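INPUT
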Amino acid sequence: MFRIITKEPLNPSVTRMSIEAPLVAKKVQPGQFIILRAEENGERIPLTVAGYDREAGTVDIIFQIVGATTEKLNHKQAGECIPDFVGPLGKPTETEGLKRVAVIGGGVGCAIAFPVAQKLHEQGCEVDAVAGFRSKDLVILEKEFRANSTNFIPVSDDGTWGEKGLVTDALKHLIDSGRAYDQVIAIGPLIMMKFVCKLTKAYGIKTVVSMNPIMIDGTGMCGCCRVTVGGKMKFACVDGPDFDGHEVDFDEAMARCAAYKPFELKAREAACNLFSMEVK
Amino acid sequence: MVNMSLKKNPMPSQEPQVRAHNFEEVALGYSEEQALDEAQRCLNCKNFPCVQGCPVNIRIPQFIAKAREGDFEGAYEIISADSALPAVCGRVCPQESQCEKYCVRGIKGEPVGIGRLERFVADYHNAHASGAAFTPEKNGHKVAVVGSGPAGLTCAGDLARKGYDVTVYEALHVAGGVLSYGIPEFRLPKAIVKREIEGLKAMGVQVITNMVIGRVLSIRELMEEEGFEAVFIGSGAGLPKFMNIPGESLKGVYSANEFLTRVNLMKAYEPDANTPIQHAKHVTVVGGGNVAMDAARCALRLGAESVTIVYRRSLEELPARKEEVEHAMEEGIVFKLLNNPVELIGDDNRNVVKMRCIRMELGEPDASGRRRPVEIPGSEFELDTDCVIMALGTSPNPLIKSTTDGLDTQRWGGIITDEDGLTTCEGVYAGGDAVTGAATVILAMGAGKKAAAAMDKYIRSKA
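OUTPUT
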């Protein structure tokens, strides 16, 4: 069993938890993920790590409530336990030798982009962090990003936070204003990563994306997480989750991610009903 | 008195039309009377040819002799001295190509139903056992086992019996490996797997789930930091193969591993399951092994209107057990033999809707000794399907190899070992599918057993 040490809502639908998992905390690196089950008989869901404290033996996860499992997880309180928490899985984000990087986070993807920005910042890399949210009330990790970047560029769809616009607008502006990058790292919704890659391809800037497809085991066994990269089939769990964004087939990935949407919605509804019945 | 009937006592089974709609066990097992009757068919041959066919060398005539006297517990003791998983083997071993293949009664008539008797004895024991477990005296040496499938469990059991302090690491949240995630409930009830594992735990074996060795701890760390004197790698052949044809990433296309994991491990067939699965109407399974049969029969039980197996060779070459093929046919699975998919076709939403196949004919025998399937030019045709399951085999998971310096593997990924299971790293042994590529439960158990003996010898030689 794995104890929830702290729990805090970051916005109305996004929660941060710190989980006691000393063995995972000892090894995990930015870019890697864990798989958890929120309860016995629950499904296995992958979450890329949002932080860790090797000494305290804890791993941070930040999740958006989208389906039954995240709904149930969000009903757990600090002090309670979850049955399974396995990791670290996947390959860490490669940061070695990078001098100037633009880290692009979109929505809850900022949770995963942050530890990467932090690691780059700590190793002396110049980090331009672009964070994009739909609206001001959804913003997470602003303070953390500001403290770990050379330039921090907030943008929002509705203009309530930072510049009004998309992360691609901000990135284009940075590049056009003369900022030169060894690499762009983009983490967020598939559609965002697709358009970041389209932009950077035109400029010839290497771009790494973090894929978060549907997964079951996370060890290379089921092949559910397959992604087409450069025309070849790759498994996000063992070959990724980071891939060369210019080679990823995003349209295919978007279709595959939506495979269980109706089920997901129904399951979340059922979970909500269950909780409201318990409350009554 | 020897029972001279030429036929085995038939296995009582659920009717095909009934079982095609439930996940309960197909074969129901012998009654005590049937077991006694079948045991009397054994001639108790002096040179016991059956034993040479058993990868773990169970003393078959001796256990059947005990069963014949009605001493089923005595029979169980004899089996369990050589097999860590009697109730499992009695169900999933391909006896027809092992012990029963060499049975003298099989020369004229059917061989003794050794597998059926093994199953009866194991089930009898499980129903009647007092619960007092055998707890061996500890010898003070620590060993680790990576993977809790048949190879790992056998190795763990044998070493625990010799007094070793054994820790088994499992990557998933449930122990059992392929016994849990792969083989369906209707062939191997998970309660049986659980019971066998509980038996090992009662003997002092520690089973730690959620541990992906290679990531959370390396083999080196197990030996240098955790104090294990020897390690057995039984990590299986997990990586699914695809055909490399267009359309394999369409929605509705699964590897057999994914499909079976959703069904067996995550119980997606239960109405209140948290893990979703597609309830397709027309399912097509590609491949001809036991895994293909399992996937097809699961799809049928999930409510498919039609399930078709597409296989590129003919009935003769189907690698699945004969019994599994027969069961599948009885349940109404359609076999499209001598056909091979060339493309999967999707609709506008990227859902698979058709499979394009080409007809095959058999040419000259290939390296495997089977006649090589050759495409018949211009014979392409399309099949309507809303779910495709690729059951083409698996290859060893590269995780341990890629995180263990000095561990040599074959080009296709299998860990290289000597006859005793010793790898190219001192103190590190391996066996099962991780070494051979996808094979059977019992061969993995045989490898686990051999390695356990070698590990015992190695540790003694150091002491």
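end of record. Residues 255 and 390 of chain B are 5 Å apart (CA to CA).
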